[in-house]
Amino acid sequence: MQPDRTKARILAATDALFGERGFDATSTRDIAERSGVNKALIHYHFHAKEDLLGVLLDGYYERLTVKLLTAFGQRPTLVEQVEDVLDAYADFLAQNRTFCSIVQREVASGRHVDRIVQGTLPVFQLATTWFAELTPNAVTAQELLHVLTSVYGMVVTYFTYGRVLHQLSGVDPFTDEALEARKLHVRRMVRLLFVELESRMSTDAGALS
Amino acid sequence: MQPDRTKARILAATDALFGERGFDATSTRDIAERSGVNKALIHYHFHAKEDLLGVLLDGYYERLTVKLLTAFGQRPTLVEQVEDVLDAYADFLAQNRTFCSIVQREVASGRHVDRIVQGTLPVFQLATTWFAELTPNAVTAQELLHVLTSVYGMVVTYFTYGRVLHQLSGVDPFTDEALEARKLHVRRMVRLLFVELESRMSTDAGALS
DNA sequence: ACGCGACTTGGGCGATCGCCTAAACCGAGT
DNA sequence: ACTCGGTTTAGGCGATCGCCCAAGTCGCGT
């Protein structure tokens, strides 16, 4: 078998196992068995187990960044652009649910935070420049961070807590219809935010109520 | 030393270690060392490592539920009650940041989901009955779940992604001032939601835009 | 004083961990 | 035909894992 094919098989197995069990609960032997590859090959191709996670995360963030940056800038108004990016984000998470689990766990453990910050940085900076240009003095940097955190949380929590939501509602949250409904909900919330921002800009004053 | 004191020391060390490293990355020897207790005592008092996590989670959810249910019902209007509950939730997470990390990891791994669902159930049911009484036909069950997920996500994400936010903004998100600012932001978002709900009820029709 | 049950202790069992070594394999270049 | 570098293999090293055992200690009722 050509080495590229081997590396791909190892990475695929790693993704599946890290996603469902987590880094610490997965042994290199598990990965070898799942990918149908000798266990020494993992260390030959990826040096250490830790590096496997690094390569995996870097790949995810590169694909995610490309997808979000291209989703941005397709439609005229800012609201529509934001909606497109959030839709693309939701689609990405739906198609890469292991990514969501892995990041959540690593952030909780404070590991690979640098890599995760670096991965989110391009989109984060794009978002901040949007608002800096569009709402020069209506939104402070602190407030913007809160808004981004909230929107991010709304999108991501739906996927991380998928199992919990399933049990609470009895409905599978990952069917196509359910995902579309979620995206619609997020769009509504974002519209509400924008309405508030615009009204604040027109009155040229801050703070709601 | 009296056994209750021993069990408390073990649980405290378990909480700290599970919180910062996670269940799988923590050994019973780590717990014994941190709590200054013989390693066999852990299995004597708590049977298995897995049970430690169970006891820990049950304790957290009991305290959380009591806190949220008492926070509810102190002020006249529904908006204020919701704000109080969310403030109490944020305070609880701020004072028990390990809880947040632990739950996030376990949910990501699909472990202890039953226990977590059971723990959130009282508050979840209270929230659903609120809206069922107050907005009988303005909000569907599906839509309510989306709203609760979003609000939950807004609150929790701030704490789980504390380290990331710190690096992105350069500001410690866990100072008293920062936490108050976060609570204020969540309150604003909830107010926006309520304004939308009320307008929908007055027009007696659904769907924004 | 003494026995009994609860608690604590050091030591170690078998299993599994990440990683490494030495040898075999294999296709391309000469 | 034969080297040679890249790839794959079986096997095992030392460390660590969860958990258990037999003995020891302690306080308390009698």
Overall description:
The structure is a homodimer of 209-residue chains. The first copy, chain A, is mainly α and 209 residues long. Chain A folds into two domains: 1-47, Orthogonal Bundle (Arc Repressor Mutant, subunit A); 57-203, Tetracycline Repressor, domain 2. The first copy, chain A, is 79% helix and 0% strand. Chain A has ten helices and no strands. Chain A has helices at residues 3-20, 28-35, 39-46, 49-71, 78-95, 97-109, 113-134, 141-160, 162-169, 176-203. In chain A, helix 2 crosses helix 3, helix 4 (49-71) packs parallel to helix 7 and helix 5 packs across helix 6. The longest helix of chain A is centred in the C-terminal third of the chain and has 28 residues, at 176-203. At the A-B interface, helix 6, helix 7, helix 8, helix 9 and helix 10 of A face helix 6, helix 7, helix 8, helix 9 and helix 10 of B. The structure holds a DNA duplex (30 and 30 nucleotides).
